[in-house]
Amino acid sequence: MSVLTGTEIEQTVLDCMTRLNELREPQDRLAVAPDAPIFGGDSPLDSLGLVTLMMDIEDALAERGTEISLSDAQAMSQRRSPYRDVPTLVGFIEEKLVASG
């Protein structure tokens, strides 16, 4: 398994958000920024969009030698969603990598 830095993980997430936006109508696009919301609150992303984004992030990480699942029961049952914004998701990915490593 490849060791990725927080900056590399963040860039992977932002790249995947950009790719997802290419498939969405302009009014439904995500803000792509290091502090952007992803799911809930001010985000236009629905649950299907979230699953699509998580699968793309998993694939992008796998291409870099890092195999993890971002949509497991543990993630779904957390009191505070790990998907709410970019920093929270990056932290969640970092925790998963440490736990698997």
From TrEMBL:
Gene3D superfamilies: ACP-like. Coiled coil: none annotated. Signal peptide: none annotated. It comes from the Bacteria. InterPro entries: ACP-like_sf, PP-bd_ACP. Residues 7-97 form the Carrier domain. This is Carrier domain-containing protein.
